[in-house]
Automatic annotation (TrEMBL):
Entry protein name: DoxX-like protein
InterPro entries noted in UniProt: DoxX-like
Keywords: Membrane, Transmembrane, Transmembrane helix
Keyword RNA-binding: no
A Pfam family it matches: DoxX_3
Segments passing through the bilayer: 12-31, 51-68, 75-94, 100-117
Length: 133
């Protein structure tokens, strides 16, 4: 059973990192999904929206790297949970019309939070170690 849990944890970790990497690189840094910049403009203002969107994207890429480093995994999981909850709460209030699924995005954010939580606190039998490097 422990062996299976390790494999599930490893697969979920790669999946979670890929979500951050794709959203950061494709949607924000390369700006292939204009809706992301529109959300940033709505929340933080038009003047610096392109630069701030790219900065957010680079931060998400760094977060993907942190996830894949398997370093301080619990802190990393809590950081992801906090970021997802905060980002989605702000978007839910200030830009629901720009979200892919409108206010229903909150449900998908909750599911992602539950995935991150389960991956770290249910499937990770050896937290805070670089066991897969």
């Amino acid at each position: 059973m422990a062996e299976r849990s390790i494999h599930i944890h490893k697969l979920l970790t790669y999946f979670i990192a890929s979500v951050w990497l794709i959203n950061g690189l494709v949607c924000k840094v390369l700006q292939l999904v204009p809706r992301h910049q529109q959300i940033v403009a709505r929340i933080l203002g038009e003047d610096y929206a392109p630069q701030l969107t790219r900065l957010i994207g680079f931060s998400e890429i760094l977060l993907a790297g942190w996830i894949l480093s398997f370093h301080q995994t619990r802190l990393c999981a809590w950081t992801q949970i906090l970021l997802v909850v905060l980002m989605n709460a702000i978007e839910f209030v200030l830009a629901p019309d720009l979200l892919l699924f409108g206010r229903l995005n909150a449900l998908y954010a909750l599911l992602f939070v539950l995935l991150v939580y389960s991956n770290e606190f249910v499937f990770n039998s050896r937290p805070d170690s670089a066991k897969y490097v």
